[in-house]
């Protein structure tokens, strides 16, 4: 049994409420946003077709010297009367750059700053530096508290001054003052200088 598909001219004007055709692998809302946000005129100019003010330019899909490529206003897309290529702005980007629909959409999204696709997060080069800084700080604190503990032990181990040994008594008193400072520094994590 013969089947007849209704024939649609390629560049027939689309009714405002007519759903746009689906592109495989692309959510319809993304497709709609792109086709509505990027006019064929803007894409043609951006990608160097230089259409005249009535929308005519040479076709990028076949070799020609006389313009037969028509850019339609708004969301009207394009049609080439020479080779029959036609479609919307996304089809245009697909064919011009040889991209899959989703990649063509990303290209238009980037070139026209639509912000539909999240750009990949920039690689965090800071985390390794921050990790190294944290480790260096931990090592420093450990070495410091070990050095302070050693000094304090040495001071605490000093024998008490004997009566009459004034030089040693002065040294001993100075070391006790040092010990107080070291105890303070140990608590406050300040650097004794
Ligand atoms: Zn053509």
What does the largest sheet look like? 4 strands, antiparallel
Return residue spans where pLDDT drops below 50 for at least 5 consecutive residues: 5-9, 15-19
Order of helices and strands: HHEEEEHHHH
State the helical fraction. Answer: 40-55%
The number of helical segments is 6
Strand content: 5-15%
Instruction: Please give the number of β-strands.
Output: 4
Mean pLDDT score: 84
Bound molecule kinds, no repeats: zinc ion
Overall morphology = rod-shaped
Cα gyration radius (Å): 39 Å
The secondary-structure class comes to: mainly alpha
Give the strand line-up of the largest sheet. Answer: 1-2-3-4
Amino- and carboxy-terminal Cα gap: 99 Å
List the helices and strands and how they pair.
Layout lengths: L27 H10 L2 H7 L9 E2 L11 E3 L6 E3 L5 E2 L1 H9 L3 H11 L14 H31 L9 H23 L5
The structure holds zinc ion.
Question: What do these coordinates show?
Answer:
- This protein is mainly alpha-helical.
- It is built from six helices and four strands; from the N terminus they run H-H-E-E-E-E-H-H-H-H.
- The chain has helices spanning 28-37, 40-46, 89-97, 101-111, 126-156, 166-188; strands spanning 56-57, 69-71, 78-80, 86-87.
- It has a four-stranded antiparallel sheet, with helices on one face.
- Mean pLDDT is 84; it is low at 5-9 and 15-19.
- The structure holds zinc ion.
- Zinc ion (ZN) is lined by residues 59, 61-62, 69, 80, 82-83, 85.
């Amino acid at each position: 049994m013969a089947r007849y598909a209704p024939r649609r001219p390629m560049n027939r004007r689309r009714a405002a409420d007519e759903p746009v055709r689906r592109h495989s692998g692309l959510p319809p809302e993304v497709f709609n946003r792109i086709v509505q946000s990027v006019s064929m005129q803007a894409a043609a100019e951006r990608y160097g077709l230089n259409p005249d003010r009535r929308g005519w330019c040479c076709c990028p899909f076949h070799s020609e010297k006389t313009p037969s490529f028509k850019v339609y206003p708004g969301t009207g897309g394009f049609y080439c009367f020479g080779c029959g290529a036609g479609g919307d702005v996304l089809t245009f980007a697909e064919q011009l750059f040889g991209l899959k629909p989703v990649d063509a959409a990303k290209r238009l999204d980037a070139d026209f700053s639509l912000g539909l696709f999240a750009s990949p997060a920039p690689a965090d080069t800071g985390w390794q530096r921050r990790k190294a800084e944290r480790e260096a700080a931990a090592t420093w604190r450990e070495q410091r508290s070990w050095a302070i503990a050693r000094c304090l032990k040495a001071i605490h181990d000093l024998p008490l001054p004997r009566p009459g040994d004034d030089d040693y008594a002065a040294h001993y008193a100075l070391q006790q003052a040092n010990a107080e400072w070291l105890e303070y520094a140990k608590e406050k994590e300040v650097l004794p200088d």
